[in-house]
Amino acid sequence: xxxxxxxxxxxxxxxxPDLAHIWVASSLAVSSTAASAAARSVKAVQAHGWQVAIxxxxxxxxxxxxxxxxxxxxGLREPAERNLDALADQLLDLPESWPGCRALxxxxxxxxxxxxxLLRVLSDRSERLLRLDGFQLETVLLTNGTTA
Length: 148
Known about the structure:
CATH topology: Rossmann fold
Distance between the termini: 35 Å
Number of helices: 6
Oligomer: single chain
Low-confidence stretches: none
Number of strands: 5
């Protein structure tokens, strides 16, 4: 059974202005650590029927590290950790990779929204998964308050 709308589970999030299925919360601005912000978000979305994958990339790692953490959190295989095309292809396999899951929240802690390629792939594939398979993949970006 699919979860409720992700913004009902996490009312503090706002939709990304340009990308569907991408949500932004400046939770880290009021949190002592990225891990505690992610933990609070996990509990909230699980209570609304969502399964959760968490990516906690190190701020100094840059966009490649963020992509690698996202791929690892979702259980994707090499070369998805370093190749956006491979990541895009493997995202379409999530319904098989997450058996019994129909609503998956990917929670990512980031310093700023500076990885447009990764965000666009997540958005595009989320839309396609929903349209073709009824599989909900929503990405929640927990930022430190910086949105650009």
